[in-house]
Amino acid sequence: SDTYHWFEDLVVPHRDEAGNIIGTFGVARDITERKQAERRSQTLLDAAPDAVLLVNIEGKIIIANRQNEALFGYPLNELIGNPIEMLIPERFHQNHSSHREKYFSAPRRREMHTGGELFARRRDGSEFPVNISLNALEIEEGMATIAVIRDITERKQAEQTLRESEERHRNTLESMMEGCQIIGYDWRYLFINDAAAIHGQRKKDE
């Protein structure tokens, strides 16, 4: 089978005494092993279920896996080399650089928090809630961080549906004329509607 090799060329112009280019000097270095290692790494990243980004200390995206294309709507060549802020709603831009500096001052593996919910921004401008995990990594160019990003829209919708269901159930129990009590496994009261509370007060007064 055919074997392919990658080479990195360094070309320097050769000038005459007048400064005119009359030729070049070139050096070629075989970088096949490095390229193959990069391909293997990219293959592993693309197999990850979540979007993965490698971001340098300046906030530039160095590496991105294929899940980012589906999540954000950008092709990979539009992500690499661009600032991470392109994936963040504009209202968070002002504070994001300070958050990044604070993280790199004491980098460690942790969940990303900003005192509230996290949102990301797609190419079309739409926003969606996310969970982001960070982990520091020392690379050839210096310190960087791996960000693992997960869309939690479905989870948030399920939580909202559950809250609404619980609220409807509670309102139904509150509106009942009969007394209603819910007792937990430890025999403690979890819920007492108004009718039960009033009845219990009357019994106590009697």
Which descriptors apply to this entry?
single chain; 206 residues; alpha+beta; two-stranded antiparallel sheet; 6 helices; disordered C terminus
Let me know the number of strands. 10
Strand percentage: 25-35%
Q: What would you call the structural class?
A: alpha+beta
The residue ranges in which pLDDT falls below 50 over 5 or more consecutive positions are: 201-206
Largest sheet: 6 strands, antiparallel
Q: N-to-C terminal Cα separation, in Å?
A: 97 Å
Percent range of helical residues: 25-40%
In round numbers, the mean pLDDT is: 80
Summed up, the helix count is 6
Shape: elongated
Radius of gyration: 29 Å
Order of helices and strands: EEHEEHHHEEEEHEEH
Fold blueprint:
Layout: E1 7-15, E2 21-30, H1 32-46, E3 51-56, E4 61-64, H2 67-72, H3 76-79, H4 93-105, E5 110-111, E6 119-121, E7 127-139, E8 142-151, H5 153-175, E9 181-183, E10 189-192, H6 194-205
Notes on the structure:
- With 206 residues, the protein is α+β, with helices and mostly antiparallel strands.
- Helices cover 35% and strands 31% of the residues.
- It is built from six helices and ten strands, in the order ββαββαααββββαββα.
- The longest helix is centred in the C-terminal third of the chain and has 23 residues.
- The N and C termini lie far apart (97 Å).
Summarize the structure.
The protein has 206 residues and is an alpha+beta fold. It contains 6 helices and 10 strands, in the order ββαββαααββββαββα. The chain has helices at 32-46, 67-72, 76-79, 93-105, 153-175, 194-205; strands spanning 7-15, 21-30, 51-56, 61-64, 110-111, 119-121, 127-139, 142-151, 181-183, 189-192.
